[in-house]
Amino acid sequence: MQWIFSPKLLERITDFLHANRKRRIKRLIDGMHSADLADVINSLDSKDRFLFFDMISDEVAADIISELHNDSRRIILNQIKSEQLAKIIIKMDTDDAVDILEELDKQQYYLVLNNIQEKNKEKAEELQKLLQYEKKTAGGIMDTEAIAVSSEFTPQQVKEYIKNLDVDISDFHYLYVVNEDNVLLGKVSLSKMFIADDQSKVKTLMEDGVISVNVDTDQEEVAELFRKYDLMTIPVVDDENHLLGRITFDDVIDVIDEEASEDAYKMVGLETEDKVFSTPIESMKKRIFWLSINLGTAILAASVVSLFEGTINKYVLLAVFMPIVAGMGGNAGTQTLTVIIRGIALHELTFHNTKRAIFKEIAVGGLNGIVLGSISALVAYLWKGNPILGVILGMAMICNMIIAGLFGALVPITLRAIKIDPALASGVFVTTLTDISGFASFLGLATIFMKFLTN
After folding, report:
1. For residue 313, what is the enclosing H or E element?
2. Closest CA to 209 of 184, 233, 246, 232
3. Are both 325 and 447 inside the same structural domain?
């Protein structure tokens, strides 16, 4: 029976671990999918994670280790012996192996690399080449397991060549075609190759003009190419178009997850390393900076309110409705901000269409303001029986929703123009601006209409 991850399975494994019944555990997990095994490790108590990982074969561990949560992987890397880790890394895809090596401290890194060198010199050389590339580039996420064949090969020669390679052919959809200098010429699908006439040549079967990426291309641009052209794999080349490796769809999914998580964290002023089970001190250190900035902006918004103390003292009821205007403006600004940042990330927003995007968001803010302002005015009138209060609230809502649309679009666009990550700082600025404009418009209008409110 093949088990899948479940609370019941986790409970049984935990009981067997504490009873030191390793054989029962091995029988229990035999044949389990690597993704389920990773879920088991991530769900175990910290003290049990390495005990369980140590029972898994090197082949399975190679599939699992890069899929673990950061805290689980850190626990394992801190306890595993360098020789054992080297055996596991040798069995991993080169791109995943490089990620693991980059997580090691300096001493462990050299010990593991030396062990790999002793056991598999070719693998060590491949890893050292990949370690030279920047992490978030095509070179940093590619693997070197691309199959390259000569354009002069026949299908029969290709078959013989692949048989002699130590690769899992199920991981490949395309073969890349190169000349004698390893310059990329095109690609040919495996299915086409295996049904072709044995007397034909690869050059007559290949697709030329193949889409490729330079080794220094940013990983976000790589992901965009996969999305735009519905790619399964993409070859990676150097400046002279020499084939260096390939990037597969599963690598790009990891990039998309990473970039999406990074943007989500940045929009609320968090570092990506802050996880659910980080220690309280670690999380506090990672959050305190932007919270301090937020405190400063909140004080700025409060200072705007203080300018209207006289108005509030004369008509205390205004304090009840102030959070409505500011809160709605903040939410509207965040919506616009999300749309604009997403447009930037997907390259939908360019220099030429920026003005149109800003005016569109202002129009959306105005329309939402008219609808929500009318509703707010009616509620204020029915609740407090004062039509002037309703008019002030409705007008302030319209003003703030328009301002929210304007700054929700303008702030990230401006930050991008001055080379600051718009996902990192936009939220704080937009929230502050909508709070200030909300308080100023509501209390300013109230001051103007004071003579009506006091009648």
Report:
1. helix 309-314
2. 184
3. yes
Which of 121, 141, 161 is the last residue before a domain boundary? 141
Range 63-101 burial, b when 16+ CB lie within 10 A, else e: bbbbbbbeebbebbbeebebeebbbbbbbbbbbbbbbbb
Phi, psi of 220 (to 5 degrees): -65, -35
Domain with 89 in it: what CATH number? 1.25.60.10
Determine the distance from the C-alpha atom of residue 438 to the mean position of all C-alpha atoms in its chain, rounded to a whole number: 33
| pLDDT tens string 270-314 | 655 666 656 677 777 777 777 788 888 889 888 988 988 888 888
Predicted confidence band of residue 350 (pLDDT cuts 50, 70, 90): confident
* Residue 411 CB neighbour total at 10 angstroms: 24
Q: CB under 8 Å, gap of 24 or more: what pairs does 235-241 form?
A: 235/146, 235/176, 235/184, 235/187, 235/210, 236/138, 236/139, 236/142, 236/212, 237/184, 237/212, 237/213, 238/214, 239/214, 240/183, 241/183, 241/184, 241/212
Domain that holds residue 423: 280-453
Written as one letter, the residue type at 71 is: D
Candidates 445, 433, 443; CA nearest to 329 is: 433
Q: Does one domain contain both 34 and 107?
A: yes
pTM score over 0.85:
no
Q: What is the pLDDT of residue 133?
A: 92
